[in-house]
């Protein structure tokens, strides 16, 4: 049995990792020029690593990522929560102090950033099986029940095809619906389901500001902030143990408003907010990192640029046809949106594939 995996994010890589220990062969195609998908870690040095994609996991309720981190012998960092957190409601309201654990408790980060997890998985996969800069555009089921996937090279615009006994799409649901031509056509129930699953954090942008010292800690502040004034809605301390100190934030500023700004103006607004919250020391920063996921064509569709008002309903869509699978964090009903969901979805797809392979051999 030969499997084509479309996408090399956490789900695609973990699935390939699991398949590497079986008789099932596989290829991965990835539209980006790098692996990792929505995992994006800025690593200016070995001691400094700042995640602009997924950042945390919750050990008490996410066993799959805990087990995998242990298996890969990666180290973790307790999220810093000592001291008080800040609550900023508006211009007319003074900043209030709240307990740090009320903001972001019981979570951990991965030493080296989440990209350390990506690279550790990647090291266990035969690299000859991965084609980067290769964007899937269509899938067709053949008369012999195999599949042909058409893909375009992003650099040359040249087309090529991949043949497989099974195909696993790990793209976000809306991106999948908008960019892949299915033959036979997707049923209406599947189309509606995919369109109703927004890309997790697709409307978001993230920023990291680094410093020589975590100066906020000397004032007994955790670095955690909830702000309705913005531009950052949430702020957290993401200081690395042996490197720079840093504050990380999610934006309250809408995608359309961010798009009208220059990178320099975004940076200026973020730094001014940190000065307002933590004092003039916040102006003496080392570096500014920024990623607007709403402008990433390999992550979102135009429909994803609206902020999610409530937690979406994630999970598998209705059945399409045998041997076409959907894997990724949005396809996991229990932990959709988290790294745990991406891993759980990959493992479930692996179980389905290997069961299908055994059935076929009989």
TrEMBL record:
| Gene3D superfamilies linked | FAD/NAD(P)-binding domain
Q: What is its EC number?
A: 1.4.3.10
Which UniProt key words apply to this protein? Oxidoreductase
Q: Which InterPro entries match?
A: Amino_oxidase, FAD/NAD-bd_sf, Flavin_MAO
Single GO term (MF): putrescine oxidase activity
Top-level EC class: oxidoreductase
Q: Name one Pfam family in it.
A: NAD_binding_8
* Chain segments annotated as coiled-coil in the UniProt record: none
Its domain of life reads Bacteria
Q: Which family does it belong to?
A: Belongs to the flavin monoamine oxidase family.
Q: What is this protein called?
A: Putrescine oxidase
Source organism (scientific name)? Staphylococcus gallinarum
């Amino acid at each position: 049995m030969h499997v084509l995996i479309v996408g090399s994010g956490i789900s695609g890589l973990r699935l390939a990792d699991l398949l590497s220990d079986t008789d099932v062969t596989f290829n991965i195609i990835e539209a980006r020029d790098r692996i990792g998908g929505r995992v994006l870690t800025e690593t200016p040095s070995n001691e400094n690593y700042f995640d602009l994609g997924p950042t945390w996991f919750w050990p008490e309720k996410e066993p799959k990522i805990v087990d995998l981190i242990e298996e890969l012998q990666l180290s973790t960092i307790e999220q810093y929560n000592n001291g008080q957190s800040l609550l900023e409601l508006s211009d007319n309201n003074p900043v209030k102090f709240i307990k740090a654990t009320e903001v972001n408790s019981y979570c951990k980060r991965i030493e080296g950033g989440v990209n350390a997890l990506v690279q550790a998985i990647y090291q266990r996969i035969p690299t000859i099986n991965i084609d980067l800069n290769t964007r899937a555009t269509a899938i067709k089921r053949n008369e012999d029940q195999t599949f042909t996937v058409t893909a375009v090279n992003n650099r040359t615009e040249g087309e090529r095809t991949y043949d497989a006994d099974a195909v696993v799409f790990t793209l976000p649901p809306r991106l999948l619906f908008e960019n892949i031509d299915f033959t036979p056509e997707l049923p209406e129930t599947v189309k509606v389901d995919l369109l109703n699953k927004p890309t997790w954090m697709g409307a978001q942008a993230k920023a990291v500001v680094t410093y020589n010292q975590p100066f906020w800690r000397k004032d007994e502040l955790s670095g955690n902030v909830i702000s309705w004034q913005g531009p950052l809605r949430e702020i957290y301390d993401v200081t690395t143990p042996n490197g720079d100190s840093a504050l990380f934030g999610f934006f309250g500023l809408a995608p359309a408003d961010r798009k009208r700004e220059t990178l320099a103006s975004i940076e200026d607004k973020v730094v001014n907010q940190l000065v307002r919250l933590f004092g003039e020391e916040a102006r003496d920063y080392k570096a500014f990192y920024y990623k607007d996921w709403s402008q990433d064509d390999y992550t979102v569709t135009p429909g994803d640029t609206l902020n999610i008002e409530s937690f979406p309903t994630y999970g598998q869509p209705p059945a399409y046809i045998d041997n076409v699978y959907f894997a990724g964090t949005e396809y996991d009903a229990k932990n959709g949106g988290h790294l745990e969901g991406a891993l759980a979805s990959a493992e479930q797809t692996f179980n389905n594939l290997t069961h299908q392979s055994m059935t076929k051999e009989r």
